[in-house]
From TrEMBL:
Protein known as: Antilisterial bacteriocin subtilosin biosynthesis protein AlbE
Source lineage: Bacteria, Bacillati, Bacillota, Bacilli, Lactobacillales
Organism field: Vagococcus luciliae
Alphabetical list of InterPro entries matching this protein: Metalloenz_LuxS/M16, MPP/UQCRC_Complex, Peptidase_M16_C
Domain Peptidase M16 C-terminal: 182-355
Amino acid sequence: MTIKLNNQVNLHIIPTNKYKTVRIVVRFATPLDAITSSKRSLLASLMETNSLNFPDQVALSKKLAELYGAGFYVSVNRTGNQHYLSIGLNVINDNIAPNGVSILEDSVEFLKEIIFNPNIKNNAFDTETFAREKENLIVDIESIFDDKQTYAAMSLQNLFFSDNKNQKTPSFGDINQIKQETPESIAEYYTHMIAHDKIDILVSGNVEEGYVERCFKNFGFVDREEMETDLFYKQPFKNIIQQKSEVLPVVQSKLNIGYHCDVYYHDDMYFPLMVFNGLFGGFPHSKLFLNVREKHSLAYYASSSIDPFRGFISVQTGIDSSNRERVLRLVNEQLKNMTAGEFSDELLEQTKKMLINQYLLSSDNQRSVVEQYYLFSNIPYADLPQEEWMSKMNAVTKEDVQDVATGINLQAVYFMEGGK
């Protein structure tokens, strides 16, 4: 059930008795931009730490304890051409709360405090809080360099989207931009976000729809203009392969490979794309795992993943530096074998069954259900009944997978060589 609270402000109610908790997410969406991604990342840290009436983390924690140990978070992420700042709260159902207390009403008031009363005075965030959270965020981002697998994935993304600053910048922004921000600049951006972002409020749990609507009826948002941004980022294929190598102090070298793909979320060939990825590198029975890692013992790990909102397929491997060319050649051979249909009917059926099992498991996960509902609100044609989804998956043929593989082309190669 979706209720329009204001123009571009929607309340989505997802009643279910599957869970003992109620999950509330307030999501701010805006067109993806490298500079504002940095601002939103810092703003999320500030909003998660305190507010005007909960001026420190002790006061904030005390309030969450009064909500019977509610789980609270503020995070940023992105999908395609859109950037999200999400404020979430997990609380127990009213029907198991003691003394007839309305946890939902108290939770809505808490969220109103966090959203509409940040720790801003005289048009600036509290200086002490700002300095601490800015430093913490910079340290967190710098620590990514220590996680070489994540660093390699980010480096491949930087190569693949080399012509688009917005796409190659991580969802948490750019460290140099964050260093330039001030208590005044983030307070100014907060005001802009509250007034202009598209808002979706999602409530999942054992709730009564009319009661939820009453709780949020006068939440506080005002009308805003429609966001005219296509969710999908479609980058044209380039004949030039982007490549980068660097030597870093790691024992295990990393070879990450990026492929261009013109198949996107829930278009005609989306189901064959999922099956392709499962056979190529998504599961333990995939070609990358069995041939690159097991048969030839050339990789400590080898897998693939798809980003169906940006036409991006990535392969991640951990290898000995001396095996770089052999691994690159062998990975590309697996793609050619997929194009030629060199996979058995048994593996095809096994992959479809595993994807169906993943789908059914996600329908039992409250977080996944909320995220799917949000996605379907933006892409209504993707909201398929369970039987239809499974039917489409079972209908995928070997020829469909070959057709998908034919349209996948090498676009970027990043190599992290282990050294002193």
